[in-house]
Amino acid sequence: MKYIDIHSHLNTKDFDTDREAVLARMQETETGTIIIGTDLESSKRAVELADKAGVPIWACIGVHPVDDPAKIFDVDAFEALARHPKVVAIGECGLDYFRIEKTEEEVARQEKLFLDQIDFAIAHDLPLMIHQRDAIPEVLLILEASVREYGPKLRGDIHFFSGDLAQAERFWNMGFTTSFTGVITFARNYDEVIKNAPLEMLMSETDAPWIAPVPYRGKRNEPSYVTEVVKKIAEIRGENVEIVEKAMISNAKRMFRIA
Description:
The chain is α/β, with parallel strands linked by helices. It has a single domain (3-256), classed as Alpha-Beta Barrel (TIM Barrel), CATH 3.20.20. The chain has helices at residues 19-29, 40-52, 75-82, 104-124, 136-150, 165-173, 191-196, 226-237, 241-256, and strands spanning 3-8, 31-36, 57-61, 87-96, 128-133, 156-158, 176-180, 202-204. The longest helix has 21 residues, at 104-124. The radius of gyration is 17 Å and the shape is globular.
């Protein structure tokens, strides 16, 4: 494995017609991925694909904060999935105040859903995959309080990080890495964080099928395109791309305990 995409949604219908071809391109580019669940059914599908694929694939199981507000975190149902050896993280979970009306009831619902998954991750000694759209201050407060309670056992990645350097440093100080998508190939908003990050606190991801990097903008994204993200991280930091490639693999192995 030369590249790692720590966050993709290969379990969605977007790949139903040509998933095998996508897997073949992953094999050609020596790319592995973690497939992300957003509810119980998609989590089961992530595990199923990770179990059967002939390329390095792992699964992350959990409930997204706003994809379906009717969903709860069913501990008993997820308990069976968490025992599967291909499950390496819990999520994507967290907070999202972009797509909802931020009522008191909605904030309470999302916070409970998030805290349930934090407790579950601790119980199973697994890292979190954190979603934090328009909610970084609130996510930071919850995680900082949880770290005071649980210590370094609480860990994870801040998926599609979109905050500033000061916020990133607070996550890094807790042991949480920050991951970046193909957006960095066409937007400069993230350069300061990437330049100033300790290399061991960075991760590469695609969030496929969305947000394809240059030169694939406008097309469906896929895990093999993470090569463009890694190259851009190296360019922004002014580092040798081979050093960054190896760091992305090493960081993922450390955080998710993958072979």
